[in-house]
């Protein structure tokens, strides 16, 4: 497992780190061969998971605001420009009662499609349906504006 750790000192720095990270993920052709890229964001409330996802969306030229899809559980963003044909999926499992709710949204089909980049907040709530092949990112609040972010590529 590859592991890398950074500390950011503002929301903007977290978004920039997310943008760099996702460009690296998409440039990694090896990962595209079978199914979606899955990125799980682990960490407490306010640790920066949604902020990170906004940085991902910005790097991928998603139009409009990416907020926590709190009441939607899942949001799909078709990508344009150089990423045309791909989709960003943002799942927020915070309010679900069982992993079945995510399964019912087409989880397996979404993960089977190599055109998809899937970002999940609160993955612990769907632990039983998380595949081994994924990237885990852990967020920790270390000071008011400082976050430790640990990237763990399980491949
Ligand atoms: N270094 C940082 N990285 C990310 N967010 C930060 C940072 N410093 C302060 N913040 C603030 O912390 C909050 C993080 O919220 P959010 O991204 O919604 O967290 P989560 O989705 O993990 O609950 C935001 O209000 C953001 O502006
Ligand atoms: Mg959030």
In short:
This protein has a single domain (2-153), classed as Rossmann fold, CATH 3.40.50.300.
Could you give the order of the helices and strands? EHEHEEHHEEE
CATH topology call: Rossmann fold
Please tally the helical runs, counting DSSP H or I stretches of 4 or more residues. Answer: 4
- The fraction of residues assigned to DSSP E strands is 25-35%
Oligomer: single chain
Could you give a short account of the major beta sheet?
7 strands, mixed
Low-pLDDT residue spans: none
Overview of this protein structure:
The chain has 155 residues and is α/β, with parallel strands linked by helices. Helix content is 25%, strand content 30%. The chain has a seven-stranded mixed sheet. Adenosine-5'-diphosphate is lined by residues 8-11, 13-14, 43, 45-51, 68, 121, 139, 145-147.
Q: SSE layout and pairings?
A:
Blueprint: E1 2-8, H1 11-27, E2 37-42, H2 49-59, E3 74-78, E4 87-92, H3 99-103, H4 107-112, E5 116-121, E6 135-143, E7 146-153
Parallel strand pairs: 2-5, 2-6, 4-5
Antiparallel strand pairs: 1-7, 3-4, 6-7
Helix pairs in contact: 1-2
The structure holds adenosine-5'-diphosphate (ADP) and magnesium ion.
Key structural traits:
single chain; 155 residues; alpha/beta; Rossmann fold; seven-stranded mixed sheet; binds adenosine-5'-diphosphate; binds magnesium ion
